[in-house]
Amino acid sequence: MQTLIVYYSRTNTTKELAGKLQENFAADILQIEDQKKREGFLYLLKASFDALTANVTLINQFSHNLEEYDLVLVGSPIWAASITPAIRTFLLGNSEVLPRLAFFVTHAGGGSGRSKKQFKKIAGQEPLAFLSVKDDEVKKDDESFKNKLAEFEREIITNFKS
Ligand SMILES: Cc1cc2nc3c(=O)[nH]c(=O)nc-3n(C[C@H](O)[C@H](O)[C@H](O)COP(=O)(O)O)c2cc1C
């Protein structure tokens, strides 16, 4: 199963999670970069506004051919209880060629339920599995986190086959 992990990460939490998934799926990996400035109080306020109002952004170009993959795992931090503009832009720009998808998010405690609904609407398909973890869970990397990760992976494989 040719698998690609696509993620956006501003402060590396989602990147860390993506790295763990990459090992377990032996997947290729693609980091999406947001070309807009996302540092500093005012810019972070704007980042929340962009996420909340479903704004798109400018993202980097990439050379991966999405049609070569059977499965893409998409990862985003939660901003203002929403998918980040970078991942929204990636999904909107590629929904026609994306294979089956799974979705993972990191957050500080809230908003992941809403992001799952947004994901389905933007990508045009229900994710095979959905993983939502708090940023401090990723850092702790304890048994409970490892179990969540294993459950996510099991669910993807089971639903992929059915
Ligand atoms: C602009 C902005 C808005 C955020 N909004 C939320 C939010 O609504 N709910 C939440 O639980 N965490 C929120 N967070 C926290 C991040 O989702 C969380 O720290 C995440 O793990 C960061 O991922 P990253 O390190 O990959 O960028 C927000 C962070 C930023 C920068």
Topology:
Blueprint: E1 3-8, H1 13-25, E2 28-32, H2 41-52, E3 71-79, E4 82-83, H3 85-94, E5 100-107, H4 112-123, E6 130-134, H5 135-140, H6 143-161
Parallel strand pairs: 1-2, 1-3, 3-5, 5-6
Antiparallel strand pairs: 3-4
The structure holds flavin mononucleotide.
Walk me through the structure.
There is one protein chain. This protein has 162 residues and is of the alpha/beta class. Helices cover 44% and strands 22% of the residues. The chain has one domain: Rossmann fold, CATH 3.40.50.360. Strands 1, 2, 3, 4, 5 and 6 form a 6-stranded mixed sheet that branches. The relative contact order is 0.17. The model has no long low-confidence stretch (mean pLDDT 96). Flavin mononucleotide binds next to helix 1, helix 2, strand 3 and strand 5.
